[in-house]
Each structure stands twice: as C-alpha cells, then as structure tokens.
Amino acid sequence: MSILVTGGAGYIGSHTVLELLNAGYDAVVIDNLCNSKTESLKRVEEITGKSVKFIKADIRDRAALDDVFANNKIDAVIHFAGLKSVPESAEKPLEYYENNIGGTVNLCLAMRDAGCKKIVFSSSATVYGGDNVSPLREDMPTGKTTNPYGTTKLYIEKILQDTAAADKDWSVCLLRYFNPIGAHESGRIGEDPRGIPNNLMPYIMRVVVGKLPELVVYGNDFDTPDGTGVRDYIHVVDLALGHIKAVEKVLGETGSSIYNLGTGIGYSVLDIIAAVEKAIGRPLPYKFGPRRAGDIDTCFSDPSKAKRELGWEAKRNLEKMCEDTVRWQLNNPDGYGD
Ligand code: NAD
Ligand code: UFG
Band of the pLDDT at 278, cuts 50, 70, 90? Predict the structure, then answer.
C-alpha cells in the first residue's frame, strides 16, 4: 500500500513517514518546503533503511498534483500540509485561507479525479474553542475559533465532512491533535521551527541551548492548580502511530470520523519546566509575564474514542517526551542546519 503524505517533510509529517515505513507502507511525500527541509526525510531513510519518494510540490498547484497521482499508485492520503502559526494567521488571514483551505480543496479535487478518495486530515483541538470544559470530547460543539488558523481547521473539517456526505465512496478521518512535543528517540529527527518559536517546548529548547536567555511564562493567574496554563502534551511518536491506525481505518471503510489524539492528562507550564529541568539536570531560567491574548486556562482531551474505535492510545509519558526533545535539541542545536 502506498500513502501520499502532504507536508511530509515537516515535524509531524516526518515522524509519521518513519512510522509508515516501519509499518510496511510505501510513502510518497509532497512538500513545498516553506517550513521544512528535505534533510528530515534523508534522516528518516537513514533510520529506517527504507526509501521515501520526495516530490517538491505545492498543494495549490493542480497540475503538479495531477502528475503525482498519474505517476504513482496512491491508496490513501495523509494531509499535513498547511501553515500553522496562530499570530501569523492573524496578520495574514488571506494567505492562511488560501494556503490551507484553497490547498485542501485543490488536493481533494485532484484526489477525486484520480479516484483516490481516502484522506486522513491534521485538525486541531483549537476547533473546540474556549467554551467547552475539558476533558474535550469529539461530540462537543465546535465553531468558536479565536484566530484565522483555527478557523481554517474548522472549515476544512466541514469541507471534508460535506465531501464524504455527498459521495459515499469517500473515507475521511479527522484527527484533532492536542499539543505535540517530543522527537524520535534516535535524536535524529525533531521539531525545527524558524525564527523565535511561538510554542512552549520549542521556546524552552532555545533556552536550553543558550540561544534565548529565559522563558517567559505567560500568566500565573489562570484558574488552574498552580495558576499557569494546562495543556495535553502528546509525544509526536504516539501521534504518528495514531495516523497509522487512522490510515488502516480509511483503507478499510468509507464515511467520515473524528478522533482526538491526546493523552487525556493536563500538565501546567510549571510541570513542563520541572520535567525539562529533570531531563537537563539543571534549572531552567524563567520569569512570569503577562497572559498571551487568546490563551485559555485548561485544554485536555478525552482520548477514549480513539482507544475504543482505533485501538490507539498514547504510551509515552511526560518524562519520555522531555528526554527525547532534549536529546534531539542537544544533538542538533541548529536543527537541520542551513
Ligand atoms: P510543519 O510546518 O512542520 O509541517 C507542515 C508542512 O507543510 C511543512 O513541511 C511545510 O513546508 C508544508 N507546507 C505548507 N504549505 C504547503 C503547501 N501549500 N504545499 C505543500 N507543502 C506545504 O508543521 P507540523 O507541526 O508538522 O504540523 C503538521 C500539520 O498538523 C499542520 O496542518 C498543522 O496545522 C497541524 N497541527 C499541528 C499542531 C502542532 O502543534 N504542531 C497542532 C495541531 C495541528
Ligand atoms: N506558553 C508560555 N510561554 C511561551 C509559550 C507558551 O508560557 O513562550 C504557555 C501558553 O500560555 C500555554 C502553554 O504554554 O499555556 C502552551 O502554549 P503553546 O503555544 O505551546 O500551545 P497552545 O496550547 O497555545 O497552542 C497549540 C498550537 C495551536 C493549536 C493548539 C490546540 O500552537 O496551533 O495547541 O491544538 F491550535
């Protein structure tokens, strides 16, 4: 079986390609490399001893997609390609709608015309908005997104559900990720963000390697046990393995489904700092600052539906997430380099 992975050179994509190869699938990757480098895939080949077919292409380029489907037998698609910065999406909403939504519609048209109607999509816990109370379940209402990035995820979910409702040959699996962190335990692949990171763990890693002086904890007056924000951090390898289960599902049946991919456990920013300090064996410099606009107190999943229906659950704990992130960062202080 051959899986087309859009955005497969990126953080979650590269870890998923690795697990696809380990599970015996062939992987064809398309990526425009706007936020990644092919080095990630070279290292996946090195770790697995298997090869990945890489095609530099943009999901908005219909002719390029038609070529990919004409020249490769594709059984299903895992669709990661997209822009993902919350603050950038507020500055450039049209670019986000065009890339993420326009790109997805273009991809689905090319899939339909090629007769490949099976797709697993990277959605996000952000679609639950701030009003639902954690643990978040898939049947809770969505719709109150607070930024254009989140809105692209919400609209794409709807577009894919409408597509599956209109044509019974389609098989759509929407995966709502919570907060992916960690790296493959080889220390060879991991997250390599450009510029100053927005997210907690990549920011902490810049402090660990001395590229940033200290972490600013955004607020200590949230309605949580220690006053700092609580999130459901999930090891990227567990997340990748969830995609293998989702691929099996779309290959085996039609219709549409939604699954949370999280651990079901909420950790605060101070819990994360303590776990990183344990992994590096020294204190992490940090200070408290004001809240970041739009941040909510608590967000964690009810992951039981994925366990029940996909036979998947996260196995790697916070200690492992931090150890693996630190190994990747210390082995690769400049990420994948220039
Ligand atoms: P990433 O930026 O590392 O990977 C995305 C990849 O898509 C990159 O390699 C980028 O070059 C590529 N890409 C972007 N636009 C493209 C286009 N038009 N054509 C072809 N390639 C394109 O991000 P990631 O963290 O691996 O996230 C993967 C997916 O998961 C994204 O859709 C993201 O929104 C979603 N997601 C991520 C998180 C998270 O916290 N990392 C949480 C929820 C959902
Ligand atoms: N935080 C800090 N300092 C930082 C960065 C983050 O204290 O420098 C705190 C935040 O206030 C929050 C927690 O760390 O309490 C996690 O923040 P992240 O930015 O890492 O993650 P978010 O939960 O805010 O958002 C992430 C993704 C979004 C996605 C959302 C839900 O960035 O794209 O999870 O899936 F929509």
Answer: very high
Smallest CA-to-CA distance from 77 within 118, 126, 131 is with 118
- Centre of ligand 1 to C-alpha 106, Å, is 17
Residue 249's Cβ-count burial label (10 Å; 0-12, 13-18, 19+) is buried
Q: What is the mean pLDDT of the chain?
A: 97
Report which DSSP code applies to 97: I
Nearest ligand to the CA atom of 9: 1
Q: Is 231 in the pocket of ligand 1 (CB under 6 A)?
A: no
Whether residue 177 lies in the annotated active site? no
For 14, the token pair is: 């590269």
CA triple 323-302-140, angle to 5 deg: 135
The length of the chain, given as a count of residues: 338
Catalytic residue among 96, 149, 233, 267: 149
What helix, strand, coil percent values describe the chain, rounded to 5? 40, 20, 40
What is the pTM for the complete model shown?
0.98
Phi/psi region, residue 182 (left: phi>0; alpha: psi -120 to 50; beta: rest), is left
Question: How remote is the CA of residue 67 from the centroid of ligand 1, in Å?
Answer: 22
In DSSP terms, which residues pair with 54 in a beta bridge? 29
